[in-house]
Fold each of these.
Amino acid sequence: MYEEGQSPIGAIKPTTTEPNLPQAYQIPTMRIAAYNRPGRWRGWVGIQCLAFCLGCMLCLGLMVVGIFLFGYLTDSIINSPNLQLLNSGLIGILCGAVFVTIYNISSVQAVFIKHAVKRVTWSFHSAIVGTLTFTLTAISSLFLGANDILLTGLVFGATSSAIGIIQAMKLRSSLDNAWHWALVTVLTWTTLGTLIIGVWLMRWLQPLNGS
C-alpha cells in the first residue's frame, strides 16, 4: 500500500494546461492564397490593362456628354466673352468625369479582389485621392509649360501613384507585400497612358499647331 499523498513509481503525472501559452491567443490573419502566389503580378497587369481600356472609354464618353450638355444649357455663356466661367465649367466637367471614371474602374478592380477589400470604400477613397492628384498635377504641369507627352506622363504617373498607395494600404491586411500592387498600378497606367494618350494627343494636336 502507498501512503496517502504518494504516487506509485512509474505513474504518469497529469500535465497542467497552461492557458497563457502564446499560441492559445494568436488570431491568424486572413491571407488570400490566390493573390499571394509568386506569379500574381501577371493577373494584376491584366486587371490594370482592362481597367485602363474601360477607363479611357468611360472618361471620353462622359466628357463628350458633359461638354454637349454644358454647351446646350449655357449657349449664351459660350458665346459671351466670359472665358473664366467657360474654363471653370470645362474644368468641372473634366474633374467630374475623372471622379466617376476612377470610381467605376476601382469597382472593376474590386471585383477581382472582392475578398480583400470593401468595394464602396475602396472605390470612393480611390476616386477622391485620384481626382485631387489629377487636378493638382494637371494644373501644375500646364503652368510649367510641359509638352503633351511629358504632361501625360506626369499626370498618369502622379495619379496612379496616389491611387496605388491608398489601395495598397487597404490590401496590407490581406496580401503579402501589398506594395507590389502599387508598383504594378503605377508602371501599367503610366506606361499605357504615356504611350497611348500622350502620343495620340501629340499627333492629334499637330494640325492645330500648324506643324
Amino acid sequence: MKKKNLVLSLIMLLCVAFYPSVANAASGAVFGSSVTITDGMDTSNTTLDGNTVRIENNGANTRVYLGVQVTSGTVNEYNVTLKLGNSNFTFSRGSRSSGWSGTITQDSSDPTIVHVNLTNENGVTTGLHQVATITLNVDSGVESTETCSISITQEGTPTNPENPTCEIVDGKYYDDNGVEVTKEEYEEICLNPENPQTGSFLPYAVIIGGIVVAVGLYMFTKKNKIYHI
C-alpha cells in the first residue's frame, strides 16, 4: 500500500511540476493603428475591440502601424494580413520594430494587401507592442481629405512548397518554410543549431517521459506485490 501511495505521489508531483510549461500558451490580439503604438495608449485609434480605423492622407508619410496586444504568455510570431480599403492607397515599404525579423511583402496580385510574417527570438509579453510600420503610396491627384480604412487578419505561418527550404538558389535565400528571406535571416533560421522553435516541444517530451516512468514504477510495484502473495 505504501509503494502504491509513493507511485501516485510521484505522478502528482510530475503533473504539478510541469503544469506551468503547458499552461504558458500566449494569448492576445493583433491590430492596426493610425498612430505610433505605445503600451498604455488610447486604443480608440486601433482596430482593437472592433474599432474602425481610417488612415489619413499624409503624402509620402502616410503610414499604418501594426501591433500586438499580449494578455498572457509570450508572443514570438506575428503572421498577419493587412487589407487597405481604398485602392488609391497601396503598399510602399515596411520596416520592422526592434527585435523582429522576417518578411513584409505586397500581395502578388493585389497591391492593397500586405503580408507580414515576423518572428522575435526573445518574444514580447503582457502589454501593447509595436511590431512593424507600413508606409503607403497614395495616388497623385487624390484629395488631401481622402482616407483609407484598414483591416487586420491573423494567418498561419506561410509556406511555399514550390520553393526550396533552407537553401540558397540563384543568389536567393529561402527559410525552412520556402519563403524568400535576407541572408541574415537565412543564417539565423537555417544555420543556427539552437533554433528556438525546436524548444517548444521540450516540455511535452519531458511530461510524457515522466508519465512513462511513473507508470513503469507502478507496474513494477504491482508485479512485485503479486509475486509476494
Amino acid sequence: MKLWARKAKMDEMETLDVEEWRFLCGGEQLPSGQFQATVRYKAPSDEQIRTLVLDSEEFETASQALERARELAMKWAKERSGDGRGNA
C-alpha cells in the first residue's frame, strides 16, 4: 500500500438561505489540491439535494471557493426571483 504525504486540507460547506431557496455552498478540494466552488440546493418538491453549479475557476483555499459559491448562489436566486425569470 502506498501512502501519499500532503498537508491536511478540508472542504468547507455551509447552508445559505436566500428568499425561498436553501443552498448548500461549498469549497471542495480537487485532486490537484486546488478548490472549486460548488452550489447545491434542496429541492422543495422532494427534498433531494441537487447540484446547480460546479464553478470552473480554481482557488488556493477552501474559504475563497466558499465565498465564490455564496456569490453564485445569491446570483442564481436573484435571477429567479419574482416570476421565476428575474422580473418582479
